[in-house]
Design a protein that fits this description.
six-stranded parallel β-sheet; homodimer; Two component transcriptional regulator, LuxR family (chains A, B); Rossmann fold; alpha/beta; phosphoprotein (chains A, B); 6 strands; WalR-like (chains A, B); DNA-binding; 210 residues
DNA sequence: CCCGGCCTCCACCGATCGGTGGAGCCGGCC
DNA sequence: GGCCGGCTCCACCGATCGGTGGAGGCCGGG
């Protein structure tokens, strides 16, 4: 029997090798591999596989953008396979057009089953992703900060005071406060420290490296 | 030729499969696999492989503890293979007795070479890990907070005010401030928000989930 | 035994923060 | 054209924060 044709996208060679091995043993045809977003989009257009197994953390452009491109081109169904499940990751992946979201610790058989299901047109959500989605629907709006609010929040996360942030953005301190108050409302907190923690938790901010 | 005998420890079946495949193709003998810390220690004692390829993020007890146990038992050389490189991760892994630290995006050939080198008794540091170590030696002091300082910092990260933290810990507000000032000194910041960000960056704090 | 580190507490200061309750301007959408 | 949302700004308040410069008690190691 000939199974579905898939394209593997992951920046870890070892993971690609593992997927190739697991899928091949189950009769799934691996049409190609990509280690970054550009190659993923190019190969998806070229080979038009049934399913693209997409990691979200890639060097350069993110897997999210690649997913959107591939879906927009109608080149394949995209099944996200990644390590982390933050609210923001799951939601954005589905928004970007992914047909499913699985975590890398999914047992091999379920992974193969997921790929087949995705190829057959089904939506494939791992239990964690399903939970995130359900909670996102039940409870809150994903906050969606405005550009200015995000800039102010960045300043706060760097430890800047309101006057400092005002200087950097060339606006008044009162304006900084206004933005900040709206950020507090959206994140449902009432101080700057909690706001930064909440934003990090929701994936609205990343931790700096140096 | 018969290569070194290794034990694979990773909670992702796909990664284990990938490693098994890559290593087998290079003549390395895979003596077993474990998906959690307990199994890792047990199998290491049982099989006494040349090298344990150890992921740090495992369900239950961490790979760090498993590493320390295996090293203490003299059961094998432990080569850490993980996704992230924070200062804290690298330093603690080496402290725990790991003979090397590689990232999962290491190309297959270098990974195999690393395993062979580790089996032969060498120290195996990926470029990122080497950089972290070098900078840690240069820039030194991992701050090392006291128990109380850590508790206060936790409160701050949860958005508590100094009076709140004082109540929770059953101490005076002045005491909270004293601890906090020392935390600021150690983390080289001068406000609570930056302290939380710095602590997160250094791995002294984790982000809560719910 | 004494030293040092950790934990505890005090009083007081200026700066910053969070919050209130407004207001006007502009650009895009209906 | 009208409306709405985002961005800007104002004055004023009480609470909190960060910092100063102390102090005493407790415990473990040299």
């Amino acid at each position: 029997m000939t199974g579905p044709v898939v394209l593997l996208v992951d920046d870890h060679p070892v993971v690609r090798e593992g997927l190739r091995s697991v899928l091949a043993a189950a009769g799934v045809v691996v049409a190609g591999e990509a280690g970054d977003a550009e190659a993923a989009v190019r190969l998806a257009r070229e080979h038009r596989p049934d399913v693209v197994l997409m990691d979200l953390r890639l060097p350069g452009r993110s897997g999210l953008e690649a997913t959107a491109d591939i879906v927009a081109a109608g080149a394949a169904r995209v099944l996200v396979l990644t390590t982390f499940d933050t609210d923001a990751d799951v939601l954005r992946a589905i928004e970007a057009g992914a047909v499913g979201y699985l975590l890398k610790d999914t047992p091999s058989e379920q992974l193969v089953a997921g790929v087949r299901a995705a190829a057959a047109g089904a939506t494939v959500l791992g239990p964690e992703a399903a939970d995130r989605l359900a909670r996102a629907v039940r409870a809150p709006r994903p906050p969606a900060l405005t550009a200015r609010e995000e800039q102010v929040l960045h300043g706060v996360a760097r430890g800047a005071s309101n006057p400092q942030i005002a200087r950097e953005l060339a606006i008044g301190e009162a304006t900084v406060k206004s933005h900040l108050i709206r950020v507090f409302e959206k994140l449902q907190v009432d101080d700057r420290t909690s706001a930064v923690v909440a934003a990090l938790r929701l994936g609205l901010l990343q931790l700096p490296d140096p």
